[in-house]
């Protein structure tokens, strides 16, 4: 599968979040051509500020693999990770992060700051941005428009 195909799976997760009244962000973690975890935002459901799609997907992937080291896995997420999620990406040793839309208010993987590119970390994460950017941006716009 291609990056666009994996991102479409993340968009399906984002749509699930939208339908549940959550900010529509979805994440998928892939290793060796297989999805090992999927998640979407669940902050409202869990009353938990850390229940971001990326965090939940990382937790599920670690459980699936029986290891916190996700060094051969790639994370696909519809919105650029925040600083908290960027930290979790580093800690889980993810190999790659591929995201759709930049977060110009709180992004930590290339827009506002780039936590993942700090040269003194003991782990390097490759970043690819802009995959299905229009679709990833559109679902967020539709969600926030529906709240007004």
TrEMBL record:
<feature type="binding site">
    <location>
        <position position="85"/>
    </location>
    <ligand>
        <name>Zn(2+)</name>
    </ligand>
</feature>
<protein>
    <recommendedName>
        <fullName>tRNA-specific adenosine deaminase</fullName>
        <ecNumber>3.5.4.33</ecNumber>
    </recommendedName>
</protein>
<keyword id="KW-0378">Hydrolase</keyword>
<dbReference type="Pfam" id="PF14437">
    <property type="entry name" value="MafB19-deam"/>
</dbReference>
<dbReference type="InterPro" id="IPR016193">
    <property type="entry name" value="Cytidine_deaminase-like"/>
</dbReference>
<comment type="subunit">
    <text>Homodimer.</text>
</comment>
<comment type="function">
    <text>Catalyzes the deamination of adenosine to inosine at the wobble position 34 of tRNA(Arg2).</text>
</comment>
<dbReference type="InterPro" id="IPR002125">
    <property type="entry name" value="CMP_dCMP_dom"/>
</dbReference>
<dbReference type="GO" id="GO:0052717">
    <property type="term" value="F:tRNA-specific adenosine-34 deaminase activity"/>
</dbReference>
<dbReference type="GO" id="GO:0002100">
    <property type="term" value="P:tRNA wobble adenosine to inosine editing"/>
</dbReference>
<keyword id="KW-0479">Metal-binding</keyword>
<keyword id="KW-0862">Zinc</keyword>
<dbReference type="InterPro" id="IPR028883">
    <property type="entry name" value="tRNA_aden_deaminase"/>
</dbReference>
<keyword id="KW-0819">tRNA processing</keyword>
<dbReference type="InterPro" id="IPR058535">
    <property type="entry name" value="MafB19-deam"/>
</dbReference>
<feature type="binding site">
    <location>
        <position position="82"/>
    </location>
    <ligand>
        <name>Zn(2+)</name>
    </ligand>
</feature>
<feature type="domain" description="CMP/dCMP-type deaminase">
    <location>
        <begin position="1"/>
        <end position="112"/>
    </location>
</feature>
<comment type="similarity">
    <text>Belongs to the cytidine and deoxycytidylate deaminase family. ADAT2 subfamily.</text>
</comment>
<dbReference type="GO" id="GO:0008270">
    <property type="term" value="F:zinc ion binding"/>
</dbReference>
<dbReference type="InterPro" id="IPR016192">
    <property type="entry name" value="APOBEC/CMP_deaminase_Zn-bd"/>
</dbReference>
<feature type="active site" description="Proton donor">
    <location>
        <position position="54"/>
    </location>
</feature>
<feature type="binding site">
    <location>
        <position position="52"/>
    </location>
    <ligand>
        <name>Zn(2+)</name>
    </ligand>
</feature>
């Amino acid at each position: 599968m291609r990056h666009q195909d994996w991102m479409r799976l993340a968009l399906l997760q984002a749509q699930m979040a939208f339908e549940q009244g959550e900010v529509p962000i979805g994440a998928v973690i892939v290793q060796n051509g297989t999805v090992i975890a999927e998640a979407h935002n669940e902050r409202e459901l869990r009353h938990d500020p850390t229940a971001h799609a990326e965090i939940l997907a990382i937790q599920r992937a670690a459980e699936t693999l029986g290891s916190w080291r996700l060094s051969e896995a790639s994370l696909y997420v519809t919105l650029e990770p925040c600083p908290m999620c960027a930290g979790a990406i580093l800690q889980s040793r993810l190999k790659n992060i591929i995201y759709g839309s930049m977060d110009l208010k709180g992004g930590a993987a290339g827009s506002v700051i780039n936590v993942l590119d700090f040269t003194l970390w003991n782990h390097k994460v490759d970043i690819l941005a802009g995959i299905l950017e229009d679709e990833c941006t559109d679902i967020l716009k539709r969600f926030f428009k529906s709240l007004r």
